[in-house]
Each structure stands twice: as C-alpha cells, then as structure tokens.
Amino acid sequence: MIAIVDYGAGNIKSLQIALTTLSIESTLTRDETVIRDSNAIILPGVGAFQDAMHQLRSDNLDKILQEQAAAGKPILGICLGMQLFYETSNEGGLSTGLGLIKGKIERINANVKVPHMGWNTLQIRRNKHITTNIPDQTYVYFVHSYYATDIDNDDLIATSQHGENIPALVQHNNIIGMQFHPEKSGDVGMQLIKNFWEMVS
Predict the structure, then answer these.
(1) Is 25 one of the catalytic residues?
(2) Which domains does the chain have, with CATH numbers?
C-alpha cells in the first residue's frame, strides 16, 4: 500500500485515479502509524514551499518523512513534493526543506515564460529502473515556477529544457522526485508510476 501524505497541498484526486487504474492500493493520510506501515510514500504538492513546510511541521510529518527516508522506504515526490525534498528554497524568502536531497530551490529565470506550464520533453541522462520503458524525448506535463539547482549530478536522471536544463526526474537512493505531474502525463506518466511501484514490490 502507498501512503499519500495529506497536508492540504496536492492534485490528489487525479493521482488516486491513476493509482487505482494501475491496481495499486493507496490511502490519503496524515496518520503516522499508517505512513510507517505503508510499503511506500508519495508526497504530492501544488502550492508554495513555505506554506507546505509549515503544514508538514505542524503535523509532525516532516519528522516522519525524514525517519522513513532514513529507514530506506521508497518515497516519491511530485512537483512541489519533489522540491520539498531539498535543503532550502528562496520562494517567498529563504526557508528550509526536508533535506533529503542535496540542493536548493530557486525561481526559474525570468528570460523565459514563468510558470513553466504545459507539455515538454524529457532528456534521459541516466538509465535507472524508474526510466524503464520511458523513451528519450518523450513528453510529460509541467506546472511550476521554481526548480532544483546546485544538485548532485549523480542524482540527476532526466532534464527538461526551459531556458536552461531543469531537473525533471531525480533519484537519491530510495528518494525519487518528479518535477512534472505523472498523473497528468498520459501513458508515459502511468508507466513512471508503475515503475515506481515495481521498485517497491
């Protein structure tokens, strides 16, 4: 079972539908015991970094996520959920994240359209299980104004070009982040979710 962390920020319904379509059991929860007992965790998210971290801390979910990450449980972060994995963000002023992956979150360069919204291609940089049956230059769906920078190159799995190379898919051991929305990315997104579940099971 996958625990979807409920902290008031997310496109939850479409994610739940995608998991159900793939016959993957999931539950939306903020219950610490349910999260600990799950096989894997998804941290979704749409909204502002500071607000999201404040809510996670208020519910003690930051500590649970850090604990479960250290225990080796597979955790997938989607969009804002991926950004929360990093050390800091300058969205709305400097604030600290979960610190599960090295790097920081900064605003996309104003020389290009912000937010980065719509379909864009993935450039696969490194083949991992998460990229199984995912062709290079395939399209996925983005909606974001901030991106990860100063990251460890070994964590970078795929990028997308939007003025510069945007980290689109990252993995640090058991922690996987997708800057795009797999649940809105058609067959490619479904394959990515399936790949994540296969890593779990």
Answers:
(1) no
(2) 2-200 (3.40.50.880)
